[in-house]
Write a structure and sequence with these properties.
The protein starts with a helix and ends with a helix. It folds into 2 domains: 3-241, Aspartate Aminotransferase, domain 2 (3-Layer(aba) Sandwich); 245-377, Alpha-Beta Complex (Aspartate Aminotransferase, domain 1), CATH 3.90.1150. The strands form 2 sheets. Strands 1-7-6-5-4-2-3 form a 7-stranded mixed β-sheet, sandwiched between helices. Helix content is 36%, strand content 15%. The chain is α/β, with parallel strands linked by helices and 378 residues long. Helix 2 (49-62) runs parallel beside helix 8 (231-241) and helix 11 (305-314) crosses helix 13 (366-377). It contains 13 helices and 12 strands.
């Protein structure tokens, strides 16, 4: 069965009633026939029928063995990091989401877990950085916010050579455009708040694993930590998933046209989008992605906060908001929004300059979107 068909039929009819839409089982507990004898559900932190459907759905779409749903993307990230022990080491892409950088550098470092942030777009950097202590290699590809692309398949080989796990944050592309497990990743994480739900109305996070051992460990940690996705938010995510491939197709088409428009704009300095042939790792993106996604960033020739603020506050269709993956177009200023907590030296190293502007391109008419950017840049 093709992925597009799987996506449409990902919400299974209810076995009890035949309801074509998965019911919202808004309950905290379940009546038991006898002590510890039940119908597979005892308490909704441990398992809930609605959450179970969305967990199975994301696992199927990512090509993994098991899926786990959480109350946010960072809750999903936190649960994966709980697999680590004191003395372990994480090698992470240096242009990582600000929240991931923050949890690694200010929470898990206090627990004796060290992190190295490197440029993973060059495979030699990864080979030089790993050691016998490396337990995780943590990738975003493309990265947030400068859209760096790393070779998942090659980095998976490096991870296996030192006995490490490769974790790929697939938020920017979703399984509709990229399936990291097929390329050798061990764990995939998502902020389901973004493209998976796609309508700006839910917070969610997901983890997909590919082995029985990781399944048991994540199941234990999810239940023990308790940051699970609610039944209603599980249902909202399921509803959003059914149009995932259609949305990502339109997001990608619009983003490519906007990237090409911005490249020729006299006030724009650099455009960061893997779909441009001038992108450093465009060939790798072509190899491992179905399309190039709806995210792009650009910097201005006037590299000041004031210039960036003027553009981001003048757009009318691109709404200034700290989110991405919505059907509506969004604009943000990474240096003062998503990556505010990232140290200045890391921002400079990864290209998060004062004038960098990030666009989450929606599914509106492309002419309207370009006209909006034109008037904001004027």
């Amino acid at each position: 069965m093709k992925l597009e068909t799987k996506i449409v039929h990902i919400s299974k009819p209810d076995e009890l009633t035949g309801a074509i839409s998965t019911p919202i089982y808004q309950t905290s507990s379940y009546v038991q026939e006898a002590p510890d004898v039940n119908k597979g559900f005892a308490y909704s932190r441990t398992a809930n029928p609605t959450r179970k459907v969305v967990e199975e759905a994301i696992a199927e779409l990512e090509g993994g063995l098991s899926g786990f749903a959480f109350a946010s993307g960072l809750a999903a990230t936190d649960c994966v990091l709980k697999l680590l022990n004191q003395g372990d080491e994480v090698i992470a892409v240096n242009d990582v989401y600000g929240g991931t950088y923050r949890i690694l550098s200010t929470v898990y470092n206090r627990l004796g877990i060290t992190s190295k942030f490197i440029d993973t777009t060059e495979i030699k950097n990864v080979k030089e950085a790993v050691s016998s202590k490396t337990r995780f290699i943590w990738l975003e590809t493309p990265t947030n916010p400068t859209l760096k692309v790393s070779d998942i398949e090659e980095i998976a080989k490096v991870a296996k050579s030192v006995g490490a796990l490769l974790i790929v944050d697939n938020t920017f592309l979703s399984p509709a455009l990229q399936r990291p497990i097929e390329l050798g990743a061990d764990i995939v994480v998502h902020s389901g708040t973004k493209y998976l739900s796609g309508h700006g109305d839910v917070l969610s996070g997901f983890v997909v694993v590919n082995t029985p051992e990781l399944t048991e460990e994540l199941k234990y940690l999810q239940n023990t930590s308790g940051g699970v996705l609610s039944p209603f938010d599980s249902w909202l995510t399921l509803r959003g998933l059914q149009t995932l491939h259609l949305r990502l197709e339109k997001h990608s088409q619009n983003a490519l046209k906007i990237a090409e428009y911005l490249v020729s704009h006299p006030k724009v300095d650099k455009v960061y989008y893997p779909g441009l042939k001038t992108h450093k790792n465009h060939d790798i993106a072509v190899k491992q992605q179905k399309a190039f996604g709806g995210m792009l960033s650009f910097s201005l020739k006037e590299d000041t906060l004031d210039a960036a603020f003027k553009v981001t506050t003048r757009t009318k269709l691109f709404v200034l908001a700290e989110n991405l993956g919505d059907v509506r177009s969004l604009v943000s200023h990474p240096a003062t929004m998503t990556h505010k907590s990232t140290p200045v030296e890391i921002k400079k190293e990864t290209g998060i300059q004062d004038s960098l502007i990030r666009l989450s391109v929606g599914i509106e008419n492309i002419d309207d979107l370009i006209q909006d950017l034109e008037q904001a840049l004027a």
